[in-house]
C-alpha cells in the first residue's frame, strides 16, 4: 500500500497512538520532509457507556483519539467513517481548510450516521508580507467533533471525540514517547483518578506531552518536577533565549499546547504527578501519575508504593464549593 501511495504522489499517513501507547522509536514512523499530501482514514465509533472515540481502523477507537502528525507544508486528507448512529464530524484547530471541511453544521459539513466524508486540512510555512513575518502552521493543536448533540459538538466532545494534531517544522526534535492529556469537563481523558492509566517512560528518554482543554470550566495543567518554556516547542533556542520557564499553564476549553522534557532529568526516576491545579478539580479526580522508571526499565525504589497510594485514591465529592 505504501509503495502504491508513493507512486501516486501521496505519502503514508503519519499517525501514532494515544496516551500510554508510545513507540520506542517513533522517528521511523514520521516523515523526513514536508510538502506532500498524506491520507488517513479515521473511524468514529461508540465505545459503550455513552462514550465515543476516533480510531485508525474499525474496532480500535480510543479516548483520546490517535495523534495526527504532519509537517508544515503538508496537506492531510482525512476520510472520516461514521460507524455510529449519531451525526458527527472532525474539526481541526491551527490549520487551514475550506468551508466544506469545517466540520460544522453551520457549513453543512458533517457526517450523517453510517456515512463517509473527506475533510482536507492544509498547512503552510511562515511567510513574509509587507515586511512582517506571518506565522506558519507549526504547533501543538487538536481536533474534535463539532456536530454531535448540538451544532457545536458539545455532546461529542463530552463523550470523548477529540485528539491531538501536531504540525511540526522541519528540524524539530522528535520524542521517544508521547502522551495526550485532555482536561475535559471534570476528567482527564474522560476518566478520573484512580482510573486514569499510568503513563511510563525510562529515565533520560525524550518525552512529549500534548495538553488539550475541553468542556465548560477553566483548568490549569501542572507537571511535577519537570519544567518547560512557554513557546511553541517548550524548549529554548539557546542560552540567551529569555522565554519564561514554567511548570504550570492555563488549559482552558479549546486551548492546547505541547512540550518535551527529558524524563527524570535533574530529579531522578520515580512516580510524578500531573494534574489540574484548580484544587477542587484535582481532589475531585483530575490527577494522574507518570512513572519514570530507571534507565534500564526497572522499578525505582518506592515507586510501587506510590502507585499503590494512587490506586487507593478516593476523590471527594465534597471537595468543591
Ligand atoms: Cu481543572
What key phrases describe this protein's structure?
Immunoglobulin-like, binds copper (II) ion, mainly beta, 321 residues, 4 helices, 5-stranded mixed β-sheet, 2 domains, disordered C terminus, disordered N terminus
> What is the strand content?
35-45%
How far is it from the N-terminal to the C-terminal residue, by CA? Answer: 56 Å
CATH hierarchy: architecture of the largest domain: Sandwich
- Put simply, the count of helices is 4
Radius of gyration: 20 Å
What is the H/E string?
A: HEEEEEEEEEEEHEEEEEEEEEEEHEH
Specify the overall morphology: globular
User: In CATH's first tier, which class of the largest domain applies?
Assistant: Mainly Beta
In the predicted model, the low-confidence regions spanning at least 5 consecutive residues are 1-29, 317-321
Question: Structural class per helix/strand content?
Answer: mainly beta
Helicity range: under 10%
Cofactors, ions and other ligands in the entry: copper (II) ion
Protein name: Multicopper oxidase domain-containing protein
Signal peptide: 1-17
Keywords: Copper, Metal-binding, Oxidoreductase, Signal
GO molecular function, one term: oxidoreductase activity
Q: Short description, anyone?
A:
With 321 residues, the protein is mainly beta.
Task: Write a structural description.
- There is one protein chain.
- The protein is mainly beta and 321 residues long.
- It has two domains: 2-168, Cupredoxins -  blue copper proteins (Immunoglobulin-like, Sandwich); 177-311, Cupredoxins -  blue copper proteins (Immunoglobulin-like), CATH 2.60.40.420.
- 8% of the residues lie in helices and 36% in strands.
- The protein has helices at 2-7, 154-159, 279-283, 303-311, and strands at residues 10-11, 15-16, 37-48, 51-55, 67-71, 75-82, 91-92, 116-122, 127-129, 132-134, 139-144, 162-168, 177-184, 187-188, 199-202, 206-214, 220-223, 228-229, 245-246, 248-250, 256-262, 270-276, 287-293.
- The strands form six sheets. Strands 1, 3, 4, 6 and 8 form a five-stranded mixed β-sheet that branches. Strands 2-5-12-11-7 form a five-stranded mixed β-sheet, with no helix packed on it.
- Strand 9 (127-129) and strand 10 (132-134) form a beta hairpin.
- The longest helix is centred in the last third of the chain and has 9 residues, at 303-311.
- It is globular, with a radius of gyration of 20 Å.
- Residues 1-29 and 317-321 have low confidence and may be disordered.
- The structure holds copper (II) ion.
- Copper (II) ion binds next to loops.
- The site of copper (II) ion (CU) has 6 residues, from loops.
Amino acid at each position: 500500500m505504501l509503495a502504491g501511495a508513493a507512486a501516486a504522489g501521496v505519502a503514508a499517513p503519519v499517525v501514532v497512538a494515544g496516551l500510554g501507547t508510545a513507540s520506542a522509536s517513533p522517528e521511523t514512523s514520521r516523515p523526513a520532509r514536508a510538502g506532500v499530501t498524506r491520507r488517513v482514514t479515521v473511524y468514529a465509533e461508540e465505545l459503550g457507556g455513552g462514550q465515543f472515540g476516533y480510531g485508525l481502523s474499525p474496532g480500535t477507537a480510543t479516548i483520546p483519539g490517535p495523534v495526527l502528525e504532519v509537517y508544515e507544508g503538508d496537506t492531510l486528507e482525512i476520510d472520516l467513517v461514521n460507524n455510529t448512529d449519531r451525526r458527527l464530524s472532525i474539526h481541526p484547530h491551527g490549520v487551514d481548510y475550506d468551508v466544506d471541511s469545517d466540520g460544522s453544521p453551520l457549513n453543512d459539513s458533517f457526517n450523517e450516521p453510517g456515512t463517509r466524508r473527506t475533510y482536507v486540512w492544509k498547512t503552510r510555512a511562515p511567510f513574509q508580507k509587507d515586511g512582517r513575518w506571518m506565522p506558519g502552521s507549526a504547533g501543538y493543536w487538536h481536533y474534535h467533533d463539532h456536530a454531535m448533540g448540538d451544532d457545536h459538538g458539545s455532546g461529542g466532545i463530552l463523550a470523548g471525540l477529540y485528539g491531538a494534531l501536531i504540525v511540526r517544522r522541519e528540524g524539530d526534535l522528535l520524542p521517544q514517547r508521547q502522551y495526550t492529556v485532555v482536561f475535559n469537563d471534570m476528567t482527564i481523558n474522560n476518566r478520573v483518578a484512580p482510573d486514569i492509566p499510568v503513563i511510563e517512560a525510562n529515565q533520560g528518554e525524550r518525552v512529549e506531552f500534548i495538553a488539550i482543554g475541553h468542556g465548560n470550566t477553566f483548568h490549569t495543567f501542572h507537571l511535577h518536577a519537570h519544567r518547560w518554556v512557554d513557546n511553541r516547542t517548550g524548549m529554548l533556542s539557546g542560552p540567551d533565549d529569555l522565554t519564561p520557564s514554567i511548570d504550570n499553564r492555563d488549559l482552558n476549553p479549546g486551548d492546547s499546547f505541547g512540550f518535551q522534557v527529558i524524563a527524570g532529568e535533574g530529579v531522578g526516576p520515580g512516580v510524578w504527578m500531573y494534574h489540574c491545579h484548580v484544587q477542587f478539580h484535582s481532589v475531585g479526580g483530575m490527577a494522574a501519575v507518570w512513572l519514570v522508571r530507571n534507565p534500564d526499565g526497572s522499578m525505582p525504589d518506592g515507586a510501587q508504593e506510590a502507585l499503590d497510594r494512587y490506586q487507593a485514591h478516593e476523590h471527594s465529592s465534597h471537595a468543591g464549593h
